[in-house]
Structure formats: structure tokens, C-alpha cells
Specification:
The chain is an alpha+beta fold and about 240 residues long. The protein has one domain (about 30-235): Beta Barrel (Lipocalin), CATH 2.40.128.110. The chain has two helices and eleven strands. The chain has helices spanning about 5-30, 125-135; strands at about 65-70, 75-85, 90-95, 100-105, 110-120, 145-150, 155, 165-175, 180-190, 195-205, 220-235. It has an eight-stranded antiparallel barrel with strand order 1-4-5-6-8-9-10-11. Strand 4 and strand 5 (about 110-120) form a beta hairpin.
Length: about 240
């Protein structure tokens, strides 16, 4: 092998290292792993100061769940979507704690739920991605919120004991980027002291909500994703 040929081989190897190995190292070594899916254990727990859950015995959960509840501290909402970044499989996750809303319970039936998410505060830890999300993708200046409204009452049967998780199918209207579609998904809930915590994931097709293609530059983003919800209700 001549000197010139050797240098050509080394140059090609160097380019391959940058193009192939570099992105792999970035995705699998340097870049932080996406957060795990939200669970009820991610909710903020009301405590007595010693780490134990508290129970309100003067009109709180201990005396029943009937009445009006509001979304409180510890709630989160966001998105999760598969992407191919520099040819490597990856996952993008963005979240916000800016969640508000109400729930009404009559007897053992959830009659009303309305949840609003501040889309302008959803963050993924990647400034370029967040800029695209708030700009051309979700247009948060025009559509600042996403909402969910329960359209079919949920019959609980009995009020679960404190700490017991129950799962029910929930049907309602999800609004993203100004487009409303009916969705049905499983919601897991539990009473935790003086709060009711609820967690669910809604599978969405971006085409259904007329959301533009999020792909750009080195990132190729799929046309399906998930909306993650973790809602902590407290007495109104």
C-alpha cells in the first residue's frame, strides 16, 4: 500500500468515525436518557412531616370523595414521541407542571373532569427542540393551551380504600393545536391521604390533530406519539 493510499484509507476511516461513531456516542453516552413514563409514584404526596400520608378527617377523603376537586401541586403533563436522531433511534420527552382543572364526583360517579395544560411551558431540556415545539409545530402563541374534557361519566362502583389503585376506561375530548378529537384511554387512580392522584397515557396521531411534521435537520420524527398525564386533585 502506497503512502497516498494509506492516507486515503485513514481519511475515510476518520470520516466514518465522525459520521457513524460520533452520533452513536452522543445518543448512547453523552445525551441524557429520556425520563421514564409518569407513574402515580411521581406525584407529590401530602404528608404529616414524617413522610407518612395524611388523611383529612374533617371533610377530606376519609369522609368520602363526593364534591368538587381542583388540580393541585405535583401534577404534570407532556408528550413522548419516537425520533431518529443522526440515524440513531431516540425518544423525545417534554413536560410541564403548569396543569390546572377541576373534577366533580357525585356519589361514586365521576361526572365531570376538565384539565388544561399550558403548552408554552412544556420543556424537553433541548432548547432547539423546544423552540420548534412552541413555534411551527404547536404554535403556542396562537394555541397556548391543550385541554381534556370528560364526556362520559365514570362509575367507580365503590370508593376505593386509601392507597388502592383502580383503573377505568375514560372517554373525553382532547384538544391539541385548536383541533378537538374524541379519545378513550385507561386512567389509573388512587386516593392518597387528602388527595386523589390520576395517571394515564393517551395515544395520538399527529395527523388527526393537524400537527405539522416535526422532522427537521438531523431529527426524523414519527407521526404518532403519546400525551402523558399525572394529575393530583385536592379539595376545592
Amino acid at each position: 500500500m502506497t503512502r497516498r493510499t494509506r492516507w486515503i484509507v485513514l481519511a475515510v476511516a476518520a470520516v466514518l468515525a465522525v459520521v457513524v461513531v460520533g452520533p452513536w456516542v452522543y445518543i448512547n453516552v453523552i445525551r441524557d436518557d429520556p425520563p421514564e413514563r409518569l407513574t402515580l409514584d411521581d406525584a407529590t404526596t401530602t404528608s404529616d412531616g414524617d413522610g407518612s400520608s395524611s388523611t383529612d378527617t374533617t371533610g377530606g377523603v376519609a369522609e368520602g370523595s363526593e364534591g368538587r376537586w381542583t388540580v393541585g401541586e405535583g401534577s404534570q403533563a407532556g408528550y413522548r414521541v419516537k425520533e431518529v436522531l443522526f440515524g440513531q433511534d431516540a425518544e423525545a420527552v417534554g413536560r410541564t407542571p403548569d396543569v390546572t382543572g377541576t373534577m366533580e364526583i357525585a356519589g361514586t360517579t365521576v361526572t365531570s373532569v376538565e384539565i388544561t395544560v399550558d403548552m408554552a411551558t412544556v420543556a424537553s431540556g433541548e432548547s432547539m427542540r423546544d423552540g420548534q415545539f412552541r413555534g411551527r409545530i404547536m404554535a403556542t402563541s396562537e394555541f397556548p393551551t391543550a385541554t381534556f374534557r370528560l364526556t362520559s361519566p365514570v362509575e367507580l362502583g365503590t370508593v376505593p380504600a386509601d392507597g388502592v389503585e383502580v383503573t377505568h376506561a375514560v372517554t373525553g375530548e382532547l384538544t391539541l393545536r385548536g383541533v378537538t378529537r374524541e379519545v378513550t384511554f385507561d386512567l389509573t387512580a388512587r386516593r392518597n391521604g387528602a388527595t386523589i392522584e390520576a395517571n394515564g397515557t393517551i395515544a395520538v396521531s399527529f395527523d388527526d390533530f393537524e400537527i405539522p411534521d416535526a422532522s427537521g435537520g438531523p431529527a426524523q420524527v414519527g407521526r404518532d406519539g403519546e400525551v402523558e398525564l399525572l394529575v393530583v386533585f385536592t379539595r376545592a
